[in-house]
Amino acid sequence: MSAPIITLTTDFGTRSPFVAAVKGVILGVNPDARLVDLSHDIPPFDLRHAAFFLADAVPYFPPETLHVVVVDPGVGGGREILHVARAGQQLLAPDNGCWTLSADSPACVRRVREPRFWRPTVSRTFHGRDIFAPVAGHLSLGVDPAELGPVTTRWCRLPLPTPRRDPDGLLRGEVIFVDHFGNLITNVALTRPPARVVAGDTDVSRIVHTYSDAAPGDLVALTSSNGLLEIAEVQGNASRRLAAGVGTPVLIRWNQ
Amino acid sequence: MSAPIITLTTDFGTRSPFVAAVKGVILGVNPDARLVDLSHDIPPFDLRHAAFFLADAVPYFPPETLHVVVVDPGVGGGREILHVARAGQQLLAPDNGCWTLSADSPACVRRVREPRFWRPTVSRTFHGRDIFAPVAGHLSLGVDPAELGPVTTRWCRLPLPTPRRDPDGLLRGEVIFVDHFGNLITNVALTRPPARVVAGDTDVSRIVHTYSDAAPGDLVALTSSNGLLEIAEVQGNASRRLAAGVGTPVLIRWNQ
Amino acid sequence: MSAPIITLTTDFGTRSPFVAAVKGVILGVNPDARLVDLSHDIPPFDLRHAAFFLADAVPYFPPETLHVVVVDPGVGGGREILHVARAGQQLLAPDNGCWTLSADSPACVRRVREPRFWRPTVSRTFHGRDIFAPVAGHLSLGVDPAELGPVTTRWCRLPLPTPRRDPDGLLRGEVIFVDHFGNLITNVALTRPPARVVAGDTDVSRIVHTYSDAAPGDLVALTSSNGLLEIAEVQGNASRRLAAGVGTPVLIRWNQ
User: Fold this and answer.
1) ipTM
2) Is C28 on the interface with A (CB under 8 A)?
3) What is the reported pTM?
4) Most exposed: B137, C71, C168, C178, by fewest CB within 10 Å?
C-alpha cells in the first residue's frame, strides 16, 4: 500500500520557517506521510487566488489524497476549520471560502473541533502548525474524519463575479486570474470562439487556438486550458503590456 | 520501515541548478531517500536568517530526520563542516553558527573530515554537491556518524543581539526577523502583554492576542507563534508600512 | 524496490496552478511515483537557461530517474515531444533543444505520438498536464518507451555561443548564465588559471581558487563548480555590480 499523499497549499512563502514547521509537525505525527508541495506562493491573504488555484489543481489528484490549505487571514479569530470529503479526496481548509470554487459538490463537510488531534499548545497566530498539520498527520494514519467534529451544511462561499450580457448580445466579463506568464484568465467560459474581444481599452485583434498560431509579441485571445477566455501576448506578458490585472473588464462579442 | 527523511535548507534559490544537483547526488547514493524541501530562499549568505529559520522549524521534525543546511559563504576556505546529533535528529551544516540558535544542546558534534564519503573530485565552490550531499546519502544508508570525523567541543556560535533594560524599566530590543507577511519579529520574549510598544519612531497603539482582534490595516503588537514580541499590520505589511527591518529598535514598557 | 523517481523542471512558477495540476495527473496515473522538484523558476520561455540548468543537474541523478521538462513556448503548434533515453535515465521534453546541452550522447530518442497514454482530452495550451504528465505516470508504471512512438535521429539542437581566439592569443567569450548569487558563468572552459580577465569594461583583477580567497566585496575570477570561467563578487552580486548578464563579452588572456 502506498504511503498517504498530503498536499500543501499556503500563502506562507518559503523564506519564513512556516512551511518547514508544518512539514515537521505532519512528519512528527506520521513519518510515512508523503508531502507534495502545490504552492506556497499564493499571494498573502488572497482567498480568490487560492480558490482559483485549487479549482484548477485538486480535481487531478487521485482519490485518498489529503489537501491541506492554509490561506488564513482570520486565524485565531472566530472562523472555524473545515474537513471536506469530496470525490474521494479529503481537504482541510479555513472556513473562508478558499476551497469552494470547484464544481464538485462536497459529500460531507465537518467542523474541526476535537482538540485531541491538535498540538497540546495552540498559538493564536499559527494554526497551520498547531491544528492543520497534526490533524492531517492523524488523518493520514487512518483517523476517521467523524472524530474531528460535527457535520455542517453551512459554510462560507466565495462571491465570484459573473459575466453580464447586454441587451445587444455583448458579454461583459472580467479578468479573474493572472498566471505566471502574465496571461489574463477571464470569468467567461468559451463554448465557441468569439468574434471580438476588448480587454480594458485594447482590442485583441487575433482569435487563435494556441499561442504558436501567432508570432511572438502578438496579442491574442484563446481558450485557456481550463476552458475560459484567455488573453495572452505570445512569448510575452499580456498583464504587463496592457497594465491589466484581476478586475480588468473584458468585452466579448460573438458573430450571430 | 520508512525511508529516511532528508531535509534541505539552502540559500541557493531554484533558478540555478544547485539544489537539483544536490538532490541528484543524494539520490545517486541512496535512491530511497525521501527529500523534503524546507527552504531554498534563505537570503544569500544570511547566517542569522538561517539560524532563526532552523530554530523555528527543526524541533518539529521526528527523530531520525537528517537536516542538510547549506548556507555557506565560507565554502572552500578554512571553515569545516559539522555533523550534529541533537534530540535524536542529525544535522549537517557549515561551522559558521547557522545552526546554533536552537535551545536544545547538541549531544555530539563532529568535524566532517573523512573523504571516503565525498564525491571523488571536490570543487572549491560547491561543497553542497560534493560533500554535504554524498555524506547525507551515506548517513541515510546507515553509516555511523563516528566514521565521518572526530568529535569536537568547539564550534562557531552566532552572536545574537539581546535586549537591554533601562534603569526606568523600559526594555530596548530590536527586530531580528521579518516574515513573509512583513510581520516584525523581535528579540523580546513575552511572558505578559506589554503596555506600550514603539517600533522605530512609531507608537504601536494596539496590543492584541491575534491578528483578527483588530481591523485590516491596524498596526498591532502581539505574541508571535514562537513566543516573541511581534509587530504586524493586520492583513497588511508592517515592514513596508514602517520601513522597518532587521535591526530596527523596538522599545517596550510594561505596567507596574 | 524503490518507487520510481520523477523529477520536474518547468518555467511555470508556483503562483499558478500548473505545477500542481501536473503533479496531480502524474499521481493520478501512478500514486506511488516519487516527485522531486528540480525547478519551476526557469525564466519563462528561456530554452538556453533550461539547457544550462539540465546539463548541470541531470547527470547527478541515478539510473532509472525520469526527468520531465516543460519549458515549452511552442506548445500546441508543430513542435513534437521527445522521449530520450540517456545514460540509463529517461527524459521527456519538447523538441526545442532545451535538453541537448549535456555532453552524454543519447542512446535513443523517440517522438511521443501515441495518444493512448495521454489524457482523453488534450488542450492546445497545456501539454504539461495533458501529455507529459500522463506519459510520465505510465512510464513510471513500467510502460516500454517503444510504445510511445517511433525512434528518430533528428531533433532540434540549441545553438550555443563558442569562444573565439584572436591571432594574439586573446580569447573572446561571453556570459552564458547568471546564477542565484549573481555570479557570471561564461562559456570558457578552464584548464589552467588565466592571467587576466575583463568582463564588459571591467578588469577583474584577482584570479582565485575559491570565494574565500578574497575579502567580501572583492571582484574575482575563478573556476566554477562545472569547470567554466566564473566571475564573482565575494559575498556580493557581480551581475548587479557590473550590470552584466547573459551575452556580456568576456576577454581572457593567459601567460605564455
Assistant:
1) 0.95
2) yes
3) 0.96
4) C168
